[in-house]
Amino acid sequence: xxxxxxxxxxxxxxxxxxxxxxxxxxxxxxxxxxxxxxxxxxxxxxxxxxxxxxxxxxxxxxxxxxxxxxxxxxxxxxxxxxxxxxxxxxxxxxxxxxxxxxxxxxxxxxxxxxxxxxxxxxxxxxxxxxxxxxxxxxxxxxx
Length: 143
Fold this sequence. Notes:
Blueprint: E1 29-39, H1 43-53, H2 58-65, H3 71-89, E2 98-113, H4 120-124, E3 125-140
Antiparallel strand pairs: 1-3, 2-3
């Protein structure tokens, strides 16, 4: 005859583990649009520089554009400085700024007749091209 050994089982108390939660700081990314509608430069010349600049951060672009000797760089630099200044006024951190979009479109054209050519060369029309520049920056709001 086999005897059964019975153990007395004590009930286990449930222990609640309380995790300390650090306060979460929400970093909101905000997009801001800045545009200049009538730059006196042809869009093609401005696009050559704007496409190279898109990949960098705005603070790096400001330092690099100072050393580029062209009219496009001078115009882009002034518009970009204004955009960064407006972003800091709207409480965005200057270090967190990134380019979302830089777009160069064709603006108005000034057409005038050239008397010296008469009817030759597209009927003697000289076209002065202008461009529109749109810069979209995104960054985090400082608290």
